Amino acid sequence: MTVTLDSRELNRATLARQLLLERSELTVPQALERLLGLQAQTPQTWYVGLWTRLAGYTPEETSGLLAEGGLLRIALMRGTIHLVTVEDALWLRPLVEPVIERGTRGAFGRKLVGLDLAELAAVGRAAFAERALTFAELGKLLTEHFPAYDGAAMAQTVRAVVPLVQVPPRGLWGRSGPVAHLPVEQWPGRELEPAPDVEQLVLRQLAGFGPCTVRDIQQWSGLTRLAEVLDRLRPQLVVFRDEQGRELFDLPDAPRPPADTPAPVRYLYDFDNLLLSHADRGRVLTVDFADQGFAGVNEMPRSVLVDGFVAATWRHAAAKGEAVLTARPFRRLTPAERDGLVTEGELLSRFLAPKAARHEVRITAPEPG
């Protein structure tokens, strides 16, 4: 008989994989391999994702690895920028390139009807011969070769078929810089794997996010038709069901803590993969974001886990030597939960504003959806 896992059991299993039950002693590269990267289209908010997961984390090491090309910010899963090790980038990018191409065709294909895309890719790649380029700069150069076509659409199409890396100083802690790119063959100077294995992707995904349904893995990756991959892997996996009767696949030796395992307060950044990687987000969300007024808002809220589930949002501001972190809970908190919110919030404030002389954590009144 197949075992059923309830939402709390799924929650604790996922938090364990995501290094959110206790801070890990892993190095930054080891953690990124465990997590299969962090979504990182913003320049710096994702540093909080490492801080909240790793013991004694300091951002300077991560910046150093980015600066030397050991870590990359590159379009991968779901067509979004992810921070990954260079080794993972080289096999992940070929596997998810169809996702990026599909999204780009949908957005820009009508503007490029009749254009030879192979020629566009060759001209686009050659444009980076001398220096990194922003998409605006790339589009301008491409219109010199293809004057009948839209420069922005061509630049985005090159991004889909040429593995472009956002290069430093963009993404370095405390630094700013243009959104400039180079092909991965130039920065850091490595070749993509010619024939990566989609089964490796599924197994690594389960290690970081499981147990998962087929739809969960497809949601995380952007890929489709993964049911046949899971069927091939089935002899290597264990199978559960969720409370709706859906099959959940997992690695036999992966952690699945008891439902009553304590889960400390954890502050998440705006695009944390924990909230974006499952078709059914009930394992971490008990309140619909739309009911909280987030529908139609371009900026993703920064969330707080309380007892393992999203129970608040937060924002941080620092000026004139004073830093204030404000948490807005969705429900009434127990005294212990409030204490956890304040203690962890002050630590986060000190991480975000280390030079501030004064730090304060404010908790607003609960605002249920």
What would your notes on this structure say?
This protein is α+β, with helices and mostly antiparallel strands and 369 residues long. Among the domains are: 22-183, no CATH class; 286-363, no CATH class. Helices cover 37% and strands 16% of the residues. The protein has twelve helices and twelve strands. Strands 1-3-2-4-5 form a five-stranded antiparallel sheet. A five-stranded mixed sheet has the order 8-9-10-11-12, with helices on one face. Strands 6-7 form a two-stranded antiparallel ribbon. The longest helix is centred in the N-terminal third of the chain and has 23 residues, at 86-108.
Sum this structure up briefly.
The protein is an alpha+beta fold. The chain has helices at residues 7-17, 28-35, 47-51, 59-68, 86-108, 117-127, 135-145, 151-161, 198-209, 214-221, 227-233, 335-352, and strands at residues 38-39, 71-75, 81-85, 164-166, 181-183, 238-241, 247-250, 266-267, 302-306, 309-319, 322-329, 358-363.
SSE inventory with pairings:
Layout: H1 7-17, H2 28-35, E1 38-39, H3 47-51, H4 59-68, E2 71-75, E3 81-85, H5 86-108, H6 117-127, H7 135-145, H8 151-161, E4 164-166, E5 181-183, H9 198-209, H10 214-221, H11 227-233, E6 238-241, E7 247-250, E8 266-267, E9 302-306, E10 309-319, E11 322-329, H12 335-352, E12 358-363
Parallel strand pairs: 11-12
Antiparallel strand pairs: 1-3, 2-3, 2-4, 4-5, 6-7, 8-9, 9-10, 10-11
Helix pairs in contact: 5-8, 6-7, 6-8, 7-8
Order of helices and strands: HHEHHEEHHHHEEHHHEEEEEEHE
Outline the low-pLDDT stretches: none
Overall, the morphology is globular
Helix run count? 12
From the alpha carbons, calculate the radius of gyration and give it in angstroms. 22 Å
Q: Structural class of the secondary elements?
A: alpha+beta
Count all strands and give the number.
12
N- to C-terminal separation? 38 Å
Estimate the helix proportion, in percent: 25-40%
Q: Looking across the biggest beta sheet, what order are the strands in?
A: 1-3-2-4-5
The major sheet is characterized as: 5 strands, antiparallel
Overall pLDDT = 95
- Quaternary state reads single chain
Strand content: 15-25%
